[in-house]
Fold these 2 entries.
Entry 1:
Amino acid sequence: MDHNRIVELATSISQNVAKIDSYLKSNGLSGPSFDIDTPFINGFPEEIGAIRDAVLEANLELSELLLGPKETFVEYQYNYFVCMRALYQYKIPNAFPVGEEATFAQIASNCNCSEVVVRRIMRLAMTNRIFKEVRKGVVVHTATSKALAEDERFRDYVDSEDPSQTGFSLANNTTDTMYQIMGKDPARAQRFSNAMAFRLTGPALKLDFLVDHGPWGSLPAGGTVVDIGGSHGKAMVAIAEKFPSLRFIVQDLPPTIAARRPIPQEFEYCVSFMEHDFFTPQPIIGAAVYLFRWIFHNWPDKHCIRILKNLVPALRQGSRVVVSEICLPEPNTIAVRKERKLRAMDIAMMTMQNAQERDKGEWINLFKRADERFHFVEVVQPEESDLAVIEFIWQE
Ligand SMILES: C[S@@+](CC[C@H](N)C(=O)[O-])C[C@H]1O[C@@H](n2cnc3c(N)ncnc32)[C@H](O)[C@@H]1O
C-alpha cells in the first residue's frame, strides 16, 4: 500500500471538511445529520459544492483503499434493491407514524406481513439510514424513511421500472413494451410519472442546465420547439420562462397527456400539448428545434433509428435536434464517483431494456445511421450536470 496516498487523502478530507465547517458556521447553518428533521435534499450552497465533491471523492478512494480489492467488490449491495422493493410492496414506511416509536410486531401487523420478514427487511434498510432501531426491537423514522412515508413521488421512485422489451415485459408475462403496459393501466402510469418527477429533483438533473446550454437564445422569435416524449411539459415551461418569445409543443402518448398536471397559467399562451407516438411520422413540420430529453437511453439503437426516421420527413434545412441525455465520458477522465453513477445507469438500461447510455462517438454514429443529413454540431457537458446537451442540425 502506498502510505503517502492514504495520508494525502485524509489530509485533503480534513482540510476541506474544515472549510465546509467554517462556511456553515459563518452562515449560521447547522451541520449535516441524519436526524428526522434534516431536509431530505441536501441544501449545501453551490459555492461549496466543489469542496463537498472533493471530500466525497477522496473519502470514496480512502474507503476503497482501506477495504482492498476483494472487499470493495463484495461490498456492492445487490440485495439493497430487493429490500427497497419490499419496503414499497408492504408499505412499511407508512406502517407507523413519523415521530413515534413502534415495535417490529406492531409494524408487521399493520402491513400484514410476518414479523420475521419485516425485521429482516428493516434491518437491512437501516444500514442505509432508512429507519433506526433505538432500543432492541423498537424503531423510529429517520429523514429518509420519513420522506418515503410522506413523499408520494419518492415512494413511487423506489418502485419504478423503466421501459423494457425484455426483463420488464417478461416479468409482466407479456410481449408489450413498458409504455404499452402503462397505457393499459392509468394508475401505474401515474406512479411511473411520479417516480420520474422525483428522479428529476436531484441537483445533477436540474433543468437549468438545458435552459442555459441549449440553442434557445439563437432561435427566431416565434420559433417552435417540439418536446418529443415531453411528459408533463416541465422542460418546456422552464425554457419558456427564460425565452418567452418561443412557442412550445409537448408531445407524448395519450395516457400521459391525459394524466398531466396543469402548467402555470402564465405559460398557457406559449406551451401546448398534443398526443403523438414517436414511432409514427412527426406531424409538426419545420420546427426550429425538436428536443428529446431522456428518450433515447430507453431504447436500443434499432428503435432510436426508427424514432429518428419518423422525424426526418418533418425536418427542414436548419432544423435542429437537441438531445438532453447522458454522454458517457472517456474512461478515467472524470471523478470515479460520477463515472460509477453514469456507468451503473448504463448497465441498468441494458439489464432492464436492452437499451443503453452512449458516448459522443455512439451519439454521432446513431444519428448518421438514421440519416446522413444529420450533422453533429456539439456536445456541451455542464460540469455539475449528469445530462449533456447534444446538438445536431439538419442539412439537405
Ligand atoms: C424517461 S421519460 C422522459 C420524459 C421527459 N422528456 C423528461 O425529460 O422528463 C420518457 C417519456 O417518453 C414517453 N414515451 C414513451 N413511448 C413513447 C412513444 N411511443 N411516443 C411518445 N412518447 C413516448 C413516455 O410517456 C415518457 O413521458
Entry 2:
Amino acid sequence: MEQFATTVADLAQKLAAILAEKLGFKSNFFQENCLSSTCYLRMNRYPPCPIPSDVFGLMPHTDSDFLTILYQDEVGGLQLVKDGKWFAVKPNPEALIVNIGDLFQAWSNDVYKSVQHRVVTNPRVERFSTAYFFCPSYDTEIQSCYEPSVYKKFSFRMYRQQVQDDVKKLGRKVGLPSDDQIDDVERLMEIIKQAAKEGAMVVYTLADPSMAESAKLACKLLGIPATGVIGPITEAIASHLDVLPSGLPRGAPGRNFPL
Ligand SMILES: O=C(O)CCC(=O)C(=O)O
Ligand SMILES: [Fe+2]
C-alpha cells in the first residue's frame, strides 16, 4: 500500500504539472502546496447488496480535491456523467482512473471540469477500490489561473468546511463558490430589494427550503411578483402521483457523503 501511495503521489504531481502546462502555466504551485502530508488514500469496500436499484455504493458526487487517482478491481460499478447521461466505467484492473476534482476546475477557471460520478452496488459480489486524493494544505488559496475568474478566491480549509456544513444542513454538497451563486440570506435580500427598486419580477430556484421561504416572504412584503421554478413542478408531480413530496434535499437521508 505504501508503494502504491508513493507511485500515485508521483504520478499526480506529474499529471498536475502537465495539465497546468497545457493551460500555459509552468507552475510549481502543485509541488509547493500539494505535499504528501496533505494528500490521502481512501480504501473503499462495497459489500454485495440485495437491492442494488435502491442503494448506491456511493451517491453521485464530485471530488473536492485537485485530482483523484483511482484503482478499481474487476467487479465494476463506477459510473460517470457525460453529456447529461450516466456511463459505466469499464473495470480494468491493469489501469488507473484519473478524475479532475473541484479544485482543478476552479484553478483552471472551468477549462477542466470536475466529473460527477457514483458507484452502483452489485447484488452478488463485493467490490474494492482505492482512491488517492491529491490535495493542497488547508491554508492554500485557490484562485483561477487567469482572469476574469468564474469563482471567488477561497482557501481549501474554507471549502472543506463548507462541504461538510452543506452535507450536514442540506444533505448534499453544494460545491464550488461560483460568483453568481447566492449562498446567504443577506445577499438574497439585497437582490430582492434591488428587484423591488427596478420593478422587476423574481424567479428563483433555491435548494435550501428555508431560503426559498425567506425569498417568498420578502417578495410578498415588498409587493414583488415572484415564483419558484422547481417548487411548482415538484408540487404538480406530487399531486399527479398523489404522493407527498418528501421535502428532503437530494441525497438525504443518512448516506455518507464523500469529501
Ligand atoms: O469506488 C469507486 O470507484 C469510486 C470512489 C470514489 O469516487 C471516492 O472515493 O470518492
Ligand atoms: Fe469520488
